[in-house]
């Protein structure tokens, strides 16, 4: 197994190199002249040249690449072009609020989706099944934006159950007052696609030969679903969770924007709006690394979930 | 009529009728059309038929294991223990399943749950029906594994299905099925997916268990040879109906129905080699006379050689360890000659390398080393461009008729394509004409030209594949398990066609198969392979009469002898 | 062999159905599928009409009063309009009489008379619009129609481009294997190790500042397709690997068919139905993505309208009770996406490869 992990870590290197190259290519080459953008309306050539020098974009490309690589490995991306805050500090402080929202969302949404998917798979083909599927399809076709606007208006403004926006310093206050509405919203909207997906996993398993054997042994339909089918369906379900794990760091940026939550997602949006390249570059590279590590962890965990998997 | 079953019968099937809903508009497909048969106690009943006969459906109906779109007529009855199983509630059925009546299926790999150890899967049925606790169940499981012949049962209890071979998996299935001492064991083609030597072991196991536990066995199969070995009673089905049923002796010695006679006769036999294999039509439409004239086969040293293979090697490399590769030699130093106009049979079990030899000759695999001499030139050393000239001279017919024709091309396109590539025929019109001719030659209508492969049966698709090869007028034809996936009656037709073509065009064949009887029938010379090497090579009559090597003898002894097959000269 | 050839051009006794005609037949039987198809067709017709200026041409004209009521709510109060009207009126009247110090004062009358001679059409702003008006009095219904043109166009073209890229790359990786596969897998890994939204935003940031992505809706089409090809690539690569090992491809190799012929003549017709379903799914995904991007300001340029920009405006309108823009944008999008999604499902069922 250690051989496997080492091999995977080794294989990550070209990918990380690729990500660095891609980001560099995008931002330093295609990205245009940031000095122009930052100088704004004051297009005094001296000032632009000065800004250029400060940012280091007047150097040849290979030098810029070298600087970038150094930055990645020393965790120092300099300062934000707009707020002048240290980029590393920005990233660390913003992750907390994002995770405060996204981890509960992940847990609640997955549990509910699995529960409902089993129930729907049990009654597959019936009118209930078809009705729920159509409802999911329609629910998925309404834009997330509409849900946020309506929910905020309904629950915050009209009913006053939750504050419309805001965030505080205290973790507990956040969790109980400011987070519930966004969490509820995210779960509500995310449930439909997850339900459809998990239902398809269950239905794929139900058609397998081993299910027929289980029935032939005299097991009740319920036992067949909950013991045999569920255990096998967990494999694609866990794969799916593994794929969505890296996404929780970006969080739902829309929620953060609408609810004024100082999370990583909103930070990225702001950075994009202001062409704050250092922030965007840093977030992208680090999230790529985190994604690769999460993938590795998920693959290693696979061995305990699917006995057919062997590490060579 | 009372629902009580006479004591000497364990199960009675009466007027069973099963249809399948295909879609909303069409008529449901009638799979089983009102059949009746009985299963006596302590007896093995063989339910025999070709694909589409409805045998599996009938067996699955007993325990209510049919797919969701099945429609079972309420007129039929399946009587067991004083109840009609077709009208029983789900609870009643679940109580019987696994305890009184159990099932083993054809594909043991997929029939076992991949994520649970085999011990747990067997224990499940003990805990469910016999109320055993964990420890008792585990002890009994080890006993059972021992009984079905799994070595090291204490260790194997914790193994996962994928860690076992096909034969062992099937033994586990059997252990699961007999765990609660059922009165009836339904075996749905349990040996079809296994190698012939393993098949024999499993058949012996089932037979011994049947005697020991005094249970009845309903054995479903398409292979009459197997039936002869193990059955007491035989039920013959075709297209959802029972054509004949009776004691095995009667069926084999004095078959009444033309279909039964045909089924018995069209299998190639080890002791005879008629010039033409009888086919179903001979019996159903003709007068039932069988060709008696035999064909002599063999080779002489003075036969001209068309293909010579020297020292052929093929090794596959698999990734292993941190950076390493593991070498898997599939073909080791194989050499042989193919006489012109004759058939070389290549026999072996799965993993013997026989298919790899065929593919490597065609350069569909790259050989690791060796020479393939055709008309003096080494085909393996040619460039792709040079090879093109020889491609049409050596052709191949694959095993799976459902996969070897492009589903999106019409038969016409399939036939014309090779002609276009090799510039055969001066224009489209001439090519189409040649395609029509070939279709007629292989016994298909000209209208087939416009149809898609899915509109044809397995045997018909193989004919199309043969026709495709013939468009290029090859010299050598490699038949890679070309008839293995076909029903016995269809197999006979295709073998007859192949023989006719060889007689007419002087084709030379390399016939690859695991079926020893078929190989003996069609080959002049036979080559036996095991684990990549040639074990023995001799003229076909010689090798079957006086096998020299141990492995060859083992192979030959695994062939189900069957009952004394009838085909008496009339 | 006989030399007598029958007439080669024998016409088929009955048309033998291939995959597509069989699928069409099955789709026709699917009520939900047919209804979705009709709805999608209507939207596409609307899109064409809007593109050629037949409808919604003057969505940008401020025809109505501010927050004009929809016609079904004609009579209700419109405080905003009244306050705007009052402001306008106040703007027209001179604040203070400066005629004694104003050097231009004597000339005003002359100018007024001259101005009056030039015909100036002052459109009277209407109190009521079919589906209401936005803050500037623009017709919401026309905006919704025009917005659908943009969204559908972006969705379709981005999906087509992404499918093209994904299929080409997937075919190359799956069929050739070897170093081509290794290279493409590396590219795939690089792209997928960055969370999807982040990748889009990164591209969007660069597109905004550099202008190198083109103008108008080209940037957003490029952004979506250059980031969205990965799913299709994965699928097509798996399909090509599966089919390359199938016997009909080996048979094609055995008869001497070239690599090109095998990849595109043989395999592609067998996997194109997978491509089609993917395309359809991506249209839906890209429409939803475009709406969100336009909402954030990274999508369509400011002189165009999209459902996303409508929703951006609607954000603040709900609290003052003006709900029609939110409803128009939300509902029209919901109808199109639902129809497209149901159509995709029906397509997949109709093309079910169990046909073989």
Layout of helices and strands, plus pairs?
The complex is a heterotrimer of chains A (312), B (570) and C (356).
Chain A: H1 2-30, H2 34-39, H3 45-55, H4 61-74, H5 87-122, H6 127-141, H7 144-158, H8 171-178, H9 180-206, H10 209-216, H11 221-244, H12 247-250, H13 253-258, H14 264-273, H15 277-305
Helix pairs in contact in A: 1-4, 1-15, 5-9, 5-15, 6-9, 7-9, 9-11, 10-11, 11-15, 14-15
Chain B: E1 9-20, E2 29-40, E3 44-49, H1 55-62, E4 70-72, E5 77-80, E6 83-84, H2 90-96, E7 101-104, H3 108-111, H4 118-129, H5 134-147, H6 153-156, H7 166-178, E8 184-188, H8 196-213, E9 216-221, H9 224-230, E10 233-238, E11 241-247, H10 248-253, H11 258-265, H12 280-284, E12 305-320, E13 324-339, E14 343-347, H13 354-361, E15 369-374, E16 377-378, H14 384-391, E17 394-397, H15 411-421, H16 428-441, H17 458-470, E18 476-480, H18 488-505, E19 508-513, H19 516-522, E20 525-530, E21 533-539, H20 540-545, H21 550-558
Chain C: H1 19-29, H2 31-51, E1 64-70, H3 79-92, H4 108-117, E2 126-129, H5 140-176, H6 178-192, H7 196-210, H8 218-228, H9 230-244, H10 247-255, H11 259-296, H12 307-317, H13 324-350
Parallel strand pairs in C: 1-2
Provide the residue-averaged pLDDT of chain A: 85
Shape, principal axes of CA atoms of chain B = globular
Radius of gyration of chain A: 24 Å
Give the tally of β-strands of chain B: 21
- Ends distance of chain A: 8 Å
Beta-strand proportion of chain A: under 5%
Work out the number of β strands of chain A. Answer: 0
Give the biggest beta sheet of chain A: none
Unreliable sequence segments of chain A: none
Low-confidence stretches of chain B: 564-570
The number of distinct helices of chain B, counting runs of at least 4 residues, comes to 21
What's the order of the H and E elements of chain A? HHHHHHHHHHHHHHH
**CATH homologous superfamily assignment of the largest domain in chain B:** P-loop containing nucleotide triphosphate hydrolases
Major sheet summary line of chain B? 6 strands, mixed
For this structure, what is the CATH class of the largest domain in chain B? Alpha Beta
Total helical segments of chain A: 15
Oligomer: heterotrimer
Q: Could you give a short description of this structure?
A:
With 570 residues, chain B is an alpha/beta fold. Chain B contains 21 helices and 21 strands.
